Amino acid sequence: DAGVIQSPRHEVTEMGQEVTLRCKPISGHNSLFWYRQTMMRGLELLIYFNNNVPIDDSGMPEDRFSAKMPNASFSTLKIQPSEPRDSAVYFCASSNSGINEQYFGPGTRLTVT
Amino acid sequence: GDSVTQMEGPVTLSEEAFLTINCTYTATGYPSLFWYVQYPGEGLQLLLKATKADDKGSNKGFEATYRKETTSFHLEKGSVQVSDSAVYFCALTSGGGADGLTFGKGTHLIIQP
């Protein structure tokens, strides 16, 4: 099993640019989660999907952030326009809702200058 | 809302020392409890879990017992190794595998030879 796959692993962009982060969950998993990790705030849940449907997006910081899951094997997290305070490591995780364990990808380190 | 409190460290120990990392939680209902470990530059790996009161999770010599009466889930290991150096996160979910995790701030553990 390849595990959760995230791309890119590193992204450096200028303020105001659009950023798209990608995630491929583990095959067969029906829940997908996006988290953000910063030194100041630790790990925060941004949004999660069950069976491709967004369930709770209350952690999304503001309207500049959006997430989609067009099918069971792909999700995107988009920031438009990006700001320096968005600099963080973004993790994607997936689970099978019947097993109660989340498996994390390696993360995308985003730097906005 | 749910919350997790853990000692932030860094915690520095000598090899073969006994380890305890404290974790307490606040949650509605009956949460499932987890310890995750993050090695430098990597994503989070599930270390152990417990899903109901008095359950003991264990893995790789680490143990933690779900204590409902003290709302705690302390991580212990009898003899640590240099390779255990990492950041350890206590986490909970109140909704089973289909809900997001609430994390503590993480404890940075440093084991010296």
Summarize, please.
The complex is a heterodimer of chains A (113) and B (113). Chain A has 113 residues and is mostly beta strands. Chain A contains no helices and 11 strands.
Provide the descriptors you would attach to this structure in a database record.
heterodimer; A: 113 residues; mainly beta; 7-stranded mixed sheet; 4-stranded antiparallel sheet; 0% helix; globular; B: 113 residues; 6-stranded mixed sheet; 50% strand
Structural commentary:
- The complex is a heterodimer of chains A (113) and B (113).
- Chain A is mainly beta and 113 residues long.
- Helix content of chain A is 0%, strand content 55%.
- Chain A has strands at residues 5-7, 10-13, 19-24, 31-38, 42-50, 53-56, 65-71, 74-79, 88-95, 103-104, 108-112.
- In chain A, strands 2, 4, 5, 6, 9, 10 and 11 form a seven-stranded mixed β-sheet that branches.
- In chain A, a hairpin with a 7-residue loop joins strand 9 and strand 10 (103-104).
- Chain B is an all-beta fold.
- Helices cover 0% and strands 50% of the residues of chain B.
- Chain B has strands at residues 3-6, 11-14, 19-21, 23-26, 32-38, 44-50, 56-59, 62-65, 75-77, 86-93, 102-103, 107-112.
- In chain B, the strands form three sheets. In chain B, strands 2, 5, 6, 10, 11 and 12 form a six-stranded mixed β-sheet that branches. Chain B has a four-stranded antiparallel β-sheet with strand order 3-9-8-7, with no helix packed on it. A two-stranded antiparallel ribbon of chain B has the order 1-4.
- The termini of chain B are far apart.
- Classes of the chains: A mainly beta (113), B mainly beta (113).
- The A-B interface holds A 4, 31, 33, 35, 42-45, 48, 50, 55-56, 59, 91, 93, 95-107 and B 32, 34, 36, 42-46, 49, 51, 89, 93, 96-106.
